[in-house]
Amino acid sequence: MLSSLAAMLVMLAMPPDPTERPSYLFQIQAGPDQKIHLNGERYVAQPGDLVLFDDHNTLTAKAYRWSGTGSPLHAAIVFRKQDGTPAILEAGTNAVMKVFIFDLDPRLHGFDGTILVRRVRKPLEPEQSLQLRDFAVAQEGKPYAVGRVILHASPLRPRNAFFSQYFGRTVLDRDRWICSELAVAAATAAGVLDATTYPANMMLPRDLCYDERYDLSPYYFTPALWYAREQLEHVGAGVRVGGAQER
Questions:
Q1: Reduced to 3 states, what is the DSSP secondary structure of residue 145?
Q2: Which helix (H) or strand (E) holds 77?
């Protein structure tokens, strides 16, 4: 917990970077040799993009398993500030129980873990982008919905088939937020997602990443691995992620 608070203080104290550092998205593709290939391209963030974080915390992962889901462990959404700076809206960052807005570039480059991005298929119209920004600014500072997280992990979890058909909904003016619920509500406020098809209070981060429970593919591309460098650094059969890739 102390390390999480320290990371939060660093992010809040970090001055805005006048120039965005390059970053890349690597898409998993099957090649003609029947092997999996990761093909990279420069990432240009767009309002409405979904960002999924996973710091591989064992306790958090266990809590999600109790909720009937899995990784990634945190969700957020991209928007643009009034001055045009790409920013990110999220709730519960580094176990600090409130809603935050961060500049996107230092947030991505400073995260120690795996980042996946689902790019919005259709760029937002100016009016949609404005609606998304207004929604984001209005949520900043609101507390995290700890009680609803506990409910998700209980036998009375609202995501089961019986409860979801009666209680699934998207509310745009909540006093408290779960990270994934906030991201879905923001996309709904911007007109990207439909409130009845995608009930924000039933969706956890994995639901925003993979189309196992809710199919976001009409509106979002498949998740791609975010990376700070143009070339992946391989470690054995895997890829090095997190702060080490910046060195």
A1: coil
A2: strand 74-80
